[in-house]
Amino acid sequence: MTTAPPATRSLVDAHGRTIRYLRISVTDRCDLRCRYCMAETMTFLPRSQVLSLEEIAVIAERFIERGVDKIRLSGGEPLVRRDVTELVRRLGSHVGRGLQELTMTTNGTRLRDHAPALVDAGMRRINVSMDTLDPDTFRFITRHGDVATVIDGILAARDAGLAVKINMVALKGLNEDHIAPMLAWCVDNGLDLSLIETMPLGAIDEDRTDRFLPLTGVFDRLSTRFELVRDGHRSGGPARYWRVGSSVTRLGLISPLTANFCDGCNRVRLTTEGKLYMCLGHDDQVDLKAALREGGLAAVDAAIDIGLAEKPAAHDFRIGAGEGPAVARHMSVTGG
Ligand code: SAM
Ligand code: SF4
Description:
Elements: E1 21-25, H1 53-65, E2 70-74, H2 84-92, E3 101-106, H3 111-120, E4 125-129, H4 135-142, H5 147-160, E5 163-170, H6 179-189, E6 192-197, H7 215-223, E7 228-231, E8 239-244, E9 250-254, E10 267-270, E11 275-277, E12 285-287, H8 288-309, H9 331-334
Parallel strand pairs: 1-2, 1-10, 2-3, 3-4, 4-5, 5-6, 6-9
Antiparallel strand pairs: 7-8, 8-9, 10-11, 11-12
Helix pairs in contact: 1-2, 3-5
Bound molecules: S-adenosylmethionine and iron/sulfur cluster (SF4).
S-adenosylmethionine (SAM) is lined by residues 30, 36-37, 74-75, 77, 105-107, 129, 167, 169, 196, 198-199, 201, 331-332, 336.
């Protein structure tokens, strides 16, 4: 590897947006098969094409040197990758020294075992995806998951000191009646809840149009049951937030389809095979694995700069009859 020049250039795109947030998909594999995310039979990347944990760490550290102060590990299911806690530990050593936050999105199936290591490594908050509390509906949505294991993992994580936010994808005719009970459960257990509109990413076995549930109507129904007070918190993403009465619970609505959020976008995404995507909804990417392997960090810097110059102004997601996926790759490849 050649010696890299000092990382003096900060990450500003052609639209004047400063990139401070890197999402990393540490594996495209998963132990669940959520219907809106994956087909039942998925082909995963051969291991030879996947970045090693060392390569992920080296690239992530370059982003930290260039001004990224928040990193989220995602997937696929990040906790199914062997030795992922080694990566967490290494990146965690930068928390408070360049990195403000290291966090993770997980399906929670292995959380009970991993929570103490995540806390030890400097993680303070995580997102756990759970689309219903009902065991049968959960099994149906995930095609075989056990919600009791996920709930157990969530409570173990909370008790280990992690602030937990539940991610719930709103699915018409599947879990729309489970949203109010989920919010009540989050209030009772001191957790946050983010509701997500299903996004047209990757081919699945069904038509997403059938399941698309706009969050505007969901919010109106929730407001008849809960006192929802607008909260100014912003994450540089598509979420808008409300505080639930006097509780600690914050409700977030992630509505990429019904509310555009791209003006304030502060993030880029690194896939399992080392491609850097500038936008979840576009195919523009640069290959950081090839850059690192062929030219070291100087080449990684150059590739990042090329990517940034091309970061699109906005996604162009559409959901409707006859609309296919906006991009062919699944959320599990890009890291949700
Ligand atoms: N396996 C982990 C999990 O489920 O939390 C992390 C990866 S998953 C791809 C990240 C998030 O993306 C989850 O909250 C999941 O519900 C969400 N997701 C996956 N496919 C989606 C889609 N097509 N539209 C909206 N959200 C999606
Ligand atoms: Fe796996 Fe997460 Fe996709 Fe569900 S949403 S299939 S848990 S990667």
